[in-house]
Amino acid sequence: MPALIFDCDGVLADTERDGHRPAFNQAFAEAGLDVFWDEAEYGRRLQIGGGKERIASVIDDPDQVRALHKRKTELYKEMVRAGKLPARPGIARIVDEALAAGWTLAVASTSAEESVRAVLEHAVGEQNAAHFSVFAGDVVPAKKPDPGIYLLALRELGLEPQDAIVIEDSRNGLLAAVGAGLRCVVTLSSYTADEDMSEAVLVVPSLGDPPGDAVTLQDLEACRTQPLSDKEAV
Known about the structure:
Rossmann fold
């Protein structure tokens, strides 16, 4: 059966601007640090893959980095549980369609696993989330755009690249997917609308929900079997 592999942040929910960023800032403030990332500065920090790695770009002490990241993750999960980060359009619908069709479902993200699972359960519901394989956190040595997280997912799921389609929102994620030989659909998010997505097989504002424009499971299947040299942007 085909597989649908989602990134988490910016794909399942638009989490970066109003989720991760304020959680980082609150963790910094609680620790008495004179560090604050406004929206523009956080956009620059997003070029660094991984939350601990972003903290390490301003904090030298590895123990403090780990402690800050742990607290930031706790704050972020509280925000998710409070319903402050709704799922992006089309996510719940596509997951329902994929489950009904017997597709394999997974999330591949280099964010902390507990944060990823919290977003997944909130976005698709606990019952549907139970059908997902989750590959997240420090299970690979390098963050996206390194393809390691997608290569791990393929290996653990017993898939070949042509068996799966990836949903990403950023250039780093797109390059990770393409680097693993995977076809990738990009759903642009608040921080990635101006990034080069030329390697994607399809670029859309979101997966969407009827009655407006909506990407269907049949559309994703067509993308999965599309030659990588054929690019489409809408």
